[in-house]
């Protein structure tokens, strides 16, 4: 049986350990909330970008939402286990934390190594969507229209990209390129968004979705 002085020395250590673990668990829980929010935001705002990669890439927001939900539940479990000071709960929580850390580490490494390939894949698929554009409502053409309208751009780098397409030869620039309403069909470059741009991936978009795109890298066309 431990002496009273021994118990007095151990109690502050346990209290300190529980406080540190609670702070870490709270941060872990917050990351789950962030992932959940990003997943919902991605589903609402980034679906057009994902559709230019491939059909399976459109599941990325659902993966984020699912991952965020799991982390929130684990964080809640970890907080409960810490407050209860349950040994088996804390061991189970530590095991889950280790697995999640390893998954995030692998995802971060893949994201760093293949970041340029991911951007090039989106650029190449965007160029392919322009060449196959037909304005008949297929998902790639619809994605091109929505991106050009949302970002007030025309083409991959500028409006000249459209001049190599069959659609331009037949009808001119698509309506989503126009600065004014109802300017299509026409071929007047002064009436379209003609500023030179890079492939339309806003920095915020690129930052938020890169690591989850890595999970689908082997599936990208």
UniProtKB/TrEMBL annotation:
UniProt topology in membrane? Multi-pass membrane protein
Q: Superkingdom of the source?
A: Eukaryota
Keyword vocabulary terms for this entry: Disulfide bond, Glycoprotein, Membrane, Transmembrane, Transmembrane helix
- Source species of the chain: Bos mutus grunniens
Where, per UniProt, does this protein localize?
Answer: Membrane
Which family is annotated? Belongs to the tetraspanin (TM4SF) family.
Q: Which InterPro entries match?
A: Tetraspanin/Peripherin, Tetraspanin_animals, Tetraspanin_CS, Tetraspanin_EC2_sf
Q: SUPFAM superfamilies, from UniProt?
A: Tetraspanin
Q: Which cysteines are joined by disulfide bonds?
A: 154-178
- The name under which this protein is listed is Tetraspanin
Pfam families membership: Tetraspanin
Keyword ATP-binding on entry: no
- Output the Gene Ontology cellular-component terms: plasma membrane
This protein's major location comes to: membrane
Where do transmembrane segments lie in this chain?
A: 21-42, 62-80, 92-114
């Amino acid at each position: 049986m431990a002496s009273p002085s021994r118990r007095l020395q151990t109690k502050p250590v346990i209290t300190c350990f529980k406080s540190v673990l609670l702070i870490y668990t709270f941060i872990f829980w917050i990351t789950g909330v962030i992932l959940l929010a990003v997943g919902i935001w991605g589903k609402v705002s980034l679906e057009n970008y994902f559709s230019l990669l491939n059909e399976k890439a459109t599941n990325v927001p659902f993966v984020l939402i699912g991952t965020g939900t799991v982390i929130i539940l684990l964080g809640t479990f970890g907080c409960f286990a810490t407050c209860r000071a349950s040994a088996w709960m804390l061991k189970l929580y530590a095991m889950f934390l280790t697995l999640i850390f390893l998954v995030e580490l692998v995802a971060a490494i893949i994201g760093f190594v293949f970041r340029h390939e991911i951007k090039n894949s989106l650029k190449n698929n965007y160029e392919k969507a322009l060449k196959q554009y037909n304005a008949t409502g297929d998902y790639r053409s619809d994605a091109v229209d929505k991106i050009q309208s949302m970002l007030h751009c025309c083409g991959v780098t500028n409006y000249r990209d459209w001049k190599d397409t069959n659609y331009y030869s037949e009808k001119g620039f698509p309506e989503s390129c126009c600065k004014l309403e109802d300017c299509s069909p026409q071929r007047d470059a002064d009436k379209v968004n003609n500023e030179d741009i890079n492939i339309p991936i806003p920095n915020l978009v690129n930052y938020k979705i890169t690591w989850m795109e890595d999970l689908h890298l082997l599936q990208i066309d």
